[in-house]
Amino acid sequence: MTNALNAVLRPLLARTTCSLQWWIAGQPARRLAVLFACYALFLSSWLVFPSPAAAQESDRWDDLMEQASISLAREDLAAARQATTQAARLAEYENADRLVSSLALLARIEHEAGDLAQAERALRQAIEVIDRIPGLLTEEKATLHNNLGTVLDQRGDLAGAERNYVTAMKLRDSLPGAQTQARFALWLNLAGLVDRRGDSARALELYQRAEQHLPTDSPLARAQLANNLGTLLYRLGRLPEARQRLSEALQGLDAGSSALLAASLQHNLGTIELQAGELESAGRHLREAEARRRALLGEQHRDTARTLLALALLLERQGQAEAGLVAARSGSSGMTASLLASAGTSAASALAQERREWREGFLTHLSLLAKAEKDLQRRAGEAFQLIQAAKHGELARVFADSAAGAGAPGDLGRRTREIRAQVARYQQKERELLQQLQDTRSLGDRQLALRNQLARERETLERMQEQLAQAHPRYHELVSGRVVAAEALPTLLRDDEALLAFLVGGQQTFLVVATRSDLRFFALPVGRTSLDALVRRIRSTVDPESDDEVAFAFQEASQLYQQLLAPAADVLAEKAVWFVLPDGPLESLPLSLLLKSPSAAARSHAEWLRLPWVGRQHALATLPSVSALALARTQSLPTPAPEPLLAFADPALGAPSPGATRATRRPLNRGLWGEQRVADPTRIRALAPLPETADEARAVAAALGGGRIFLREETRESKVKSIDLSLYRNVLFATHGAMASDFVDFGEPALVMTPPAVASELDDGLLSANEIASLRLNADWVLLSACNTAAADGTPGAEGLSGLAKSFFHAGARNLLVSHWAVVSESTVLITTGAFRELAAQPQHGRIRALHKAVVQVMNDERYRHPVFWAPFVLVGEGR
Known about the structure:
Largest sheet: 11 strands, mixed
Structural class: alpha/beta
Strand order of the largest sheet: 3-2-1-4-5-15-14-12-8-6-7
Oligomer: single chain
Radius of gyration: 28 Å
């Protein structure tokens, strides 16, 4: 039977070498799209293994597979899935070869339906089965591992994708013969993945390995490799080499037969020339790229938008700010529409490199707004929308394919599955369009028809997303969120409230300050590097392990206030409550510890009391998005839960850190994730224990009049999932939190629980953002009292804080209390219990003012006057 498997599979494998067309647009998203067109060639042909005794008879498995193929061709995915599933069941106990074939086709169908989780499951099962079939089947196994790598790549599991690509490569290396095309494809795959993981040195080595296997008879493949290699060399700062690679590829390309690749090369070459200050040649290449992409793909396509935003930057540097603003508005419109259309699907899994690119486009737009838009209200309103769009897009990756959507019962699950299927249809039509557009000489009148067909699929998708947002606003806020218009602010904010929204760029930081009656836009002359240094310096003086208990970065705290907030002081001074939407390094620093005026180092208690802390005069709350505030204030509050507290604390972790003077909670590194996006219990078990959190939980329970507390071995992820959480008004997680931006890039935000002996999907020791979103809470307050918003190396930036907040809000929490750094247990107990007492005494003032009063009380205590004690906690949410 395995001979039959060999005979049928091997002719199909040769067809997968259309991988030479990967990277036609020079960006990760395009490579994946075209790669799956190649992958489909393997999966769309099912394998037939008639038994000798029944070779002439009708075969039920044959019939089912034929039905599935016909249904798939007609895009009736439900019927195709049903027939293939039945075929797999027939083959499961009868014929391993047929089972592999059935699972391969099922994976193809699930991918077409936009369900990458099911596609992954089918491929993993196919690999498990083929590994049990006698015989080597090396080439077949290599193909399955390559395809699984592709699915994992699309799902954002880069580590898993890399493992499967490497396995496929090792299998192919063991085969006789050159296999030039197959090996070239695999090296190209692996190089692109490593490149997007940020390992540029290794990616360069892998691209060079791919070059060694470059097919000699494919100038198109040579140009595509040069495109990828050139852009990598550009990011490494090797501009002359990058420019040479791209120029040679462009000159050797027949643009008539490779118009889209030519446009990509022109875009990349123009970007390098722009960086080098060669504005004339950059303008020529970027304009040619934009004209080609607009003609072939339309103005709203994301590739056209990318080039428009690059043109906007060129025009800004040429001193043509008004023309640049026109280009930026067009490019931002296309990019924003693309981000919103893909929300909640695998298409939202943009990785760090791609996110940086469109973020830079939004920053260019904001810079041009500050220079060219004379209408102050329009300028501020447009900036307000751009900052929101940038933040929504960054978090969308965390919740791509969230189980809280497609796995939900009823209307939400149905709508979400339909949207994912529509995204799959759109991507399929886009692949067909891109393949046909490769040779523009043969298109004729079909070009416009193809583009219009793709536009109609996009319009259908956008309409479905809008309907989902209206029907299920809380889920939409989780995966994307609405962009709140400036016109809504008078009804959103109260008289004593202000909203501050930041976006940090390389050279400037942009700030929009909104009140009920005013909207201001500021382009501040301080960039990411300076902010990073200031935040690092301030945070270094709020480390509980420091030997100097009175030292503080007084000068830097004042300097940061002058750079960020002083320009808006006339708007902010009289507002008692500030809602802050932070960005970049500011995600790791509470603005409450900034000083409003230059202050000498305080020594006596009286001097500490006179310091003009922002947190003494204003109550601050952090927002994951503006739309989260809008949603909270437009939805009625449910009936309060009956029980006061549910607490999880003191997970069973490793030995205490040697030499620690206080019980503290340190940053986590990004190495906690293991195989298949499941955490590694061994690495979790090695984390520092938190024995003092047991006392915190008991103290909070005492302040609230009782509660249910789980400690040590009971602080498990499986326990959280098994309890009816909706019974509790307050929920405490006194444990490590993984939310630094570098951690999010390699996994997702999560809370550490007691790890199991063996990891599973139910319990791996990390309660992730997506798992939290699937919980059901009715909590007025969720307390996360052992988190750290900096990376393990001290780098500020906590993208994961907003991700965790969105998850808890979707689950039913209304406010979070989160720590920014390693906190001290004594002051933690004073702040949390004090806030609860203040709230009980004056419930009409809400949680934001109760927390503020508790913090000021701790601040006034001579023992805890230093910000290390009173400043780490921030309230996330609307504050009621």
